[in-house]
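Q: Could you fold this chain for me?
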Amino acid sequence: MGYFNELPNLDYLSQLPDVNSNETYITVKNLFKRAKLRTDIVNVITAFDYYQIEDNQRPDVIAQKLYGDAELDWVILITNNITNIREEWPLSNQNLYNHMIEKYETENALFSIHHYETTEVKDEYNRLVVPSGLQVDSNYSITYSKLDNALVTVSPVKSVTNYEYEVDKNEKKRKIRVLKPQYLSVVITDMRNIMRYDKSSQYLNQNTKQSYNPNLTGV
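A: Sure. Below is the predicted structure, expressed as structure tokens.
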């Protein structure tokens, strides 16, 4: 079940230069139609597993591995609300390196400081004082009181290079949710229902509607 095969059709008024009629349409796929998971499924934690994307592993490869059908790659994408795979899917190690060189221009620039962030600080009772990973200034410090009311000042700051920043951002994309196979039939049925057109002035059938034609009204 390929995603684009399931998209409904749209009879769109032709803008081709060789058209000699005001009522010539071409049939295209309606890319504005988009499927999503039902709320009652999204809220069922047990309907999903976590999956760690391997290097250079595409959605269709994961779909083949989990569901036995590479054309169910769209299930992987909508489960994670991914609409722009170029931006939201992890790059392979080689493509990530190429991206960094293109962005920062030289290898030396990869090891320049991108930002500073906190390291974790806990008090003597193991209570969290400062969480890790907060972006701060290089001279950031914090003062807190110990049990004996003594004040302690710490500077829990570390530098993060451009290279570390890009790798970390890419690695965070590797952990995704995947729908368990037993819920597939429900999602596929929902997909087909969503893609059907309701009756309207543009309605031709459940799978096709016609775009507005201003040439017939003079507007």
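A (continued): Residues 162 and 168 are 10 Å apart (CA to CA).
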